[in-house]
Every structure is written in structure tokens, then in C-alpha cells.
Design a protein that fits this description.
Elements: H1 3-18, H2 32-45, E1 52-57, E2 60-67, E3 76-82, E4 102-104, E5 110-113, H3 121-137, E6 145-150, H4 161-167, E7 175-180, E8 185-190, E9 193-202, E10 204-213, E11 217-218, H5 227-240, H6 249-262, H7 272-276, H8 282-286, E12 292-300, E13 306-307, E14 310-319, H9 324-335, E15 340-347, E16 350-351, H10 357-369, E17 373-380, H11 386-389, E18 395-398, H12 410-413, E19 420-422, H13 423-438
Parallel strand pairs: 3-6, 3-7, 7-18, 9-17
Antiparallel strand pairs: 1-2, 2-6, 4-5, 5-19, 8-9, 9-16, 10-14, 10-15, 11-13, 12-14
Helix pairs in contact: 1-3, 1-13, 3-13, 10-13
Bound molecules: zinc ion.
Zinc ion is lined by residues 82, 119-120, 153, 181.
Length: 440
């Protein structure tokens, strides 16, 4: 590839960061996605592609385009990234979160700073830089590539990926495999060995509202059937409960790789002690060995001296692949029989195997740019647009390659203060993505 892409990715990433695409979950304050979509569409049409901007509602814009490959009879590869970002409080940051400023951070060399730097305007910029270079040099990929830039990932994908899947599946026709977030980043074991975590699984989402009911009454009376008390007891039980460890095939494979790389003894059926030794990524991996249920909201009452008849709590549950029904049974046991459970949002877990030609292409591309690279599968505890795309039968991977300095606490940057991406890592990502897509 020419150096045009590795130069250009810097400006593309900074430009995208400077377009405020904060997604608050409220349409009125999430308008910047349209401007970002137009920027992306212009970047693609400038080099001869024909992107479509598709809105799910005014302002909630997605961009999609297809690059014909040499063999269009093969299934297409979907390369996707979201354009929205989570909110920020600028007063907490060292630089303004919309500045896209380049400055060193003390350990990682020059970085591009700003909201979206790693989640995920970095990868949006990388894919744009690669295909713009291809178009300028006349390169044709081995199979069709569908590029997709979405709205609304940060608030559940309803107006982005889910909208495209439900209302415009024709734009994704023929896609058999996909790459997007969150994976492909390095975890340094030693100078000669870096594990690159490729996402092959995602926990499911099961947001629940639970309701306790009781006898309403005056706050001054003796009262033994108080909905607030019943709810509080149940919520406390759930919040303190640890569901049993379940090691899925992806996590088992990851733990085997980690134990080999770090030379630590690891009992795959009792992995907690070993995970605790992993440093910053322990927070990512630790959540992938069990189902979780975290109370997040409470609502009850309307006056200080009135006992309400009803009290409600929201519980954010995350389930491992294949565990949904069993988890619900376990949850009811912890909550007790008297609470009503209402499902408010559910998305299934994903899991695919770490094998095949596409996985080989990832590993080869990484090793060509980093001789100390070893690609390993892992499970993400959160959710991405992949949950929506997988509904079309697309096999989804998290592969947005980034080589990171050992000292950088990468997972803390996601939705974090002073989000930033090392410039060298970003340019590494462009080279790996280019090689990977050429071999895909
Ligand atoms: Zn993201």
C-alpha cells in the first residue's frame, strides 16, 4: 500500500472526532450523526464510490456502500463501524473532547485525543483510509466488501444497525462475514509476544424491570406489606449475588492461550484467580465467566408520608451464550416468587468459532506487521452492532487492529475521560487492515 493511507488516517480520525456525534439516547440531542454521515459519504464519493445515506429518522443517518470484488459470487465481507459516541463532561478532560488534538500522553508517544478516539472513530477512519487508497490506485479486492457506518450504537442500535437489518436488508445482501469492534487490539506479554484479542463472542443483553407490590397506606402507621421494603430486599439480594462460573468454548480457548503465554497454571473450571493477575483487561475478561445482574435504577413513591402500592427497579443482566433460560430461572430464585418481571430490552449472545480462512487472514496480517503477534479469541462482556448484523446470519468478529503500548490502560479509555488513540497504533491498524482485507 502507499503511505497515503497511513498519512490520511490521522486527518480522517481528527475530522470525525471534531464532528460532535454525542448519542444521549434522545433524538433531540443526537443530531450530529447526520453531519458525520455526510462527511463519510463525501470521503467515499470523492474517490468514485456511490454511498447511500439512509436515515431511520431525521438526523439519525447511516452510510453504506459496496465495493465490487474480483469474485462477486463469493459472500461479501461487511466492514462496519458506528459514528456516534457517548456523552462527555469537557471539564474533566485534559483537552477538549471534540478537539482531535495531537499531543503525547507521557507513555504512548503522540496520540489523537477526543471522544470516539478508540470507540470507534479510529476504525471508521482506518477503513476510509484503506478504501480511499484502493480507489485511487485502482485496487480491486478479492470479494465484495460492504462498508457500513452506523448511527445509534451507543444507545442500543435501534436507529442504526437494527434499522438497516429490519428495513434495508437488501443493502446487506450476500454478506456472510463481518468485522467491526471490539477486538484486534494488543495485550503485551513481553517484548517478543503480544496477544491480539479478536472478538469471537459477545454476551447477551437482558434489561429487566422488576416490580414489587404491597398495600398502600399512611407513612405513620405500623405496616407489614410495604412494596418499597420488598423491592429493596430483592434488589440487594440480586446486587450481591454471584452467579455460577460457566466457561464457554471462547473463554476456555482464551484462558488456554493466556496460561500458555504467561506461563501460569490455570484451572479452566476455576479461572478467577488467574484472571485477577491479568491487570487492566481483567475487568473485560472477568465479566465473561458468568452471567451478571446489576441493579441500575430505582423508582417508587410520590410523597414522603405515603406508602406506595408499587416499587420498581431496573436490572441490567448480561448472559453468556446459551445461558438465557437457565439464567432467568436462577434470577427468579434470587428475586423471590412475589416480584413481577418485565422484559424491556433483549438481545441474544453471540459466539462463533476461531477458525477458517478469515481468521487465518487476521493472524497473518497481524504477524506481517508485528512479528511478536499472536491472535487469540475472546468474548466481549458488552454489546455491539454485531448483535443486529448477526440476525441476518452474518458471522461477526471484532477486529479493529491496534498495536498498543504496554503501559496504556486500553479498556479504561472506552467511554472514559481523556480517550485517545496512539498515532503509531492507528497507522499500524491501517497497514494490518489493508493486508487483511486484501487476503480476505
Ligand atoms: Zn463502540
Amino acid at each position: 500500500m502507499s503511505t497515503a493511507a497511513t498519512d490520511e488516517v490521522i486527518d480522517l480520525c481528527r475530522d470525525l472526532i471534531r464532528i460532535d456525534t454525542t448519542n444521549t439516547g434522545d433524538h433531540a440531542t443526537s443530531a450530529g450523526e447526520r453531519a458525520a454521515a455526510e462527511y463519510v459519504a463525501t470521503s467515499l464519493s470523492e474517490v468514485g464510490l456511490h454511498p447511500q445515506v439512509v436515515e431511520s429518522r431525521p438526523g439519525r443517518a447511516n452510510v453504506i456502500t459496496r465495493i465490487p470484488g474480483r469474485d462477486s459470487s463469493r459472500g461479501a465481507l461487511l466492514v462496519h463501524g458506528h459514528l456516534d459516541v457517548v456523552p462527555f463532561d469537557a471539564s474533566e478532560w485534559s483537552v477538549h473532547p471534540l478537539s482531535g488534538e495531537i499531543r503525547p500522553d507521557g507513555t504512548s508517544g503522540d496520540c489523537i485525543w477526543g471522544r470516539g478516539a478508540v470507540d470507534m472513530k479510529d476504525f471508521d477512519a482506518m477503513s476510509l483510509a484503506v478504501v480511499r487508497d484502493w480507489q485511487r490506485t485502482g485496487y480491486v479486492p478479492p470479494r465484495d466488501i460492504v462498508l457500513c457506518y452506523t448511527a445509534d450504537e451507543e444507545a442500543g442500535s435501534e436507529f442504526g444497525a437494527t434499522f438497516l437489518v429490519e428495513k434495508h436488508p437488501e443493502l446487506l445482501e450476500g454478506c456472510t462475514e463481518a468485522v467491526g469492534e471490539v477486538g484486534g487490539f494488543s495485550y503485551t506479554v513481553s517484548n517478543d509476544l503480544r496477544l491480539y484479542l479478536v472478538q469471537t463472542a459477545e454476551k447477551g443483553i437482558d434489561w429487566l424491570r422488576v416490580h414489587a407490590t404491597g398495600r398502600p397506606g399512611h407513612g405513620s402507621f405500623v405496616h407489614d406489606d410495604n412494596a418499597v421494603t420488598a423491592l429493596a430486599e430483592a434488589v440487594a439480594r440480586v446486587g450481591r449475588h454471584r452467579f455460577p462460573v460457566v466457561v464457554t468454548p471462547t473463554v476456555r480457548a482464551f484462558l488456554a492461550e493466556i496460561s500458555d503465554a504467561l506461563q501460569i497454571e490455570l484451572d479452566p473450571d476455576d479461572p478467577e484467580a488467574a484472571i485477577a493477575k491479568l491487570g487492566p483487561i481483567a475487568t473485560i475478561i472477568g465479566a465473561t465467566i458468568r452471567n451478571t445482574a446489576n441493579p441500575t435504577r430505582l423508582a417508587a413513591g410520590y410523597k414522603d408520608n405515603v406508602i406506595p402500592s408499587r416499587a420498581s427497579a431496573t436490572i441490567d443482566c448480561r448472559t453468556l451464550p446459551g445461558q438465557f433460560d437457565l439464567f432467568r430461572e436462577q434470577l427468579v430464585e434470587v428475586l423471590g416468587p412475589d416480584l413481577e418481571i418485565e422484559s424491556i430490552h433483549r438481545q441474544n449472545a453471540l459466539e462463533t468459532t476461531f477458525d477458517g480462512a478469515l481468521v487465518d487472514a487476521m493472524a497473518l496480517a497481524l504477524r506481517a506487521e508485528d512479528p511478536g503477534a499472536r491472535a487469540v479469541p475472546y468474548m466481549l462482556s458488552g454489546g455491539t452492532d454485531a448483535k443486529s448484523f448477526a440476525r441476518l446470519g452474518i458471522r461477526c468478529f471484532g477486529f479493529a487492529p491496534l498495536r498498543l503500548p504496554a503501559e496504556l490502560n486500553f479498556s479504561a479509555l472506552f467511554h472514559g475521560i481523556d480517550e485517545r488513540v496512539p498515532v503509531e497504533g492507528l497507522q499500524f491498524g491501517v497497514r494490518v487492515l489493508d493486508r487483511f482485507l486484501r487476503q480476505s
